[in-house]
Amino acid sequence: MANANPFASTHSLNEDPFADPGESTPKFDSFIASSTRSASAAELSQRERELSAREAALAQREQKLREGKRNNWPPKPFPYQLIYHDIDEEIPEASRPLIKRLYQLWLVLGATLVVNMIACIFFVLSNQEDAGKDLGTSISYLFFIGILSFLLWYRPIYNGYMKVAAMSVTSATDVSLFKDLYFFFCGFHLLFSVYITGGAGLIATIRSFTKGGVMAIIAGIISTIALAGWVIQGFGNALYYRQIWTHHNTEGHSFTKAKTELATHGAKAYFTRG
User: Fold this and answer.
1) What residues in the chain have per-residue pLDDT under 70?
2) Neighbouring C-beta atoms of residue 209, cutoff 10 Å
């Protein structure tokens, strides 16, 4: 038997001894390239969908701006809508809970004024002393306090936070003006809330229960509900008044800035939007 030459084959000599044994083959390279292309296509498709969504949102916003914001408050069934009021759209997300609570407190105040007037009607029916005077007072409260509280303390703080969302076109002093209006008139309102003896107030309520009689007792119960409304909106407004005051000072707003804004723009700053 002939001896085999161990050096006859050159195959092992032609291989790179330092080559990675896991080096990819052409088929493996093709698979990697295909997977990369698929991932890129999926990412591109996702970006296209996001871009389309943004374009649709922008188009919708531009359409709304073209059409203009139609007045929607007071809500129907009131025959006339006088202003535009939309907390979710106009107020920055971080401030929406605060403004919603203030609006709810204003609604509590409105309901309290109505109940206060109804209680005074029962005062008249129960022939209480000064019942006619109390009824007239309650009617004046309903219109003057109801309307002026919305215009002089709720609307300013609403507009102030609304203009924070539009700060690119509104100065910080504008915000100071609105907040200072709120501080002044809401502070006055809080002091008035302590004085709840007018109309169906504390004295009239006590008088109803001590007098006796069905009408007087009904008047006393309704008047108690009105008193509870005064207390709720009073304490609630005091709580948020302090919160807004702290935030106002932390942000560096001041009465000087508010006076500057008022001197620059006058009453226009109160009525303009954005």
Assistant:
1) 1-35, 37, 58-68, 164-178, 193-200, 248, 251-274
2) 14
pLDDT (0 to 100) of residue 200: 65
Classify residue 267: in a domain, yes or no: yes
Given this model, what pLDDT does residue 210 score?
85
For 228, the domain range is 93-271
Would you state the pLDDT for residue 85?
Answer: 92
The angle that helices 172-194 and 155-165 make with each other, rounded to 10 degrees, is 160
Is 67 inside a domain boundary?
A: no
- Here the tokens at position 27 are 């088929």
How many CB atoms neighbour CB 88 within 10 A? Answer: 9
